[in-house]
Amino acid sequence: MELTSKQRAALRAMVNTLQPVLYIGKEGVTDATIKEAYDALQARELIKCSLGENAPLDAREACGILCDRLGASPVQCIGRRFSIYRRNEKEPKIEI
């Protein structure tokens, strides 16, 4: 799913107030991490993620892996934090 620049800007404005709900630690992106991200995206559609100090990846790599595996779209990547979006087809919560 590709986002337009206006859609991405609207999502960036929404994500500013969110706290990270997914933490990636020294194990990197595991199957458990992907399951947790899937559940969070089903419930919220827009999530902020954070990398720990010992994470073997940088934020862009982790974001790319999660987006590929989950069919999500990257919204923003700054420092050790990034946010991703995936529309819930059954019960959409965010209209962009």
Give the key terms.
4-stranded mixed sheet; 21% strand; 39% helix; alpha+beta; single chain; 4 strands; 96 residues; globular
Q: What does this protein look like?
A:
- This protein is of the alpha+beta class and 96 residues long.
- It is built from 3 helices and 4 strands.
- The protein has helices at 5-15, 31-44, 59-70, and strands at residues 22-24, 46-51, 73-78, 81-85.
- The protein has a 4-stranded mixed sheet with strand order 1-2-4-3, with helices on both faces.
- A hairpin with a 2-residue loop joins β3 and β4.
- The longest helix is centred in the middle third of the chain and has 14 residues, at 31-44.
- The model has no long low-confidence stretch (mean pLDDT 94).
Rg, nearest Å: 12 Å
Outline, from the CA principal axes? globular
Give the helix proportion (percent range): 25-40%
Unreliable runs:
none
Summarize the biggest pleated sheet.
4 strands, mixed
- Secondary-structure class: alpha+beta
Number of strands: 4
N-to-C order of helices and strands:
HEHEHEE
The N- to C-terminal Cα distance equals 13 Å
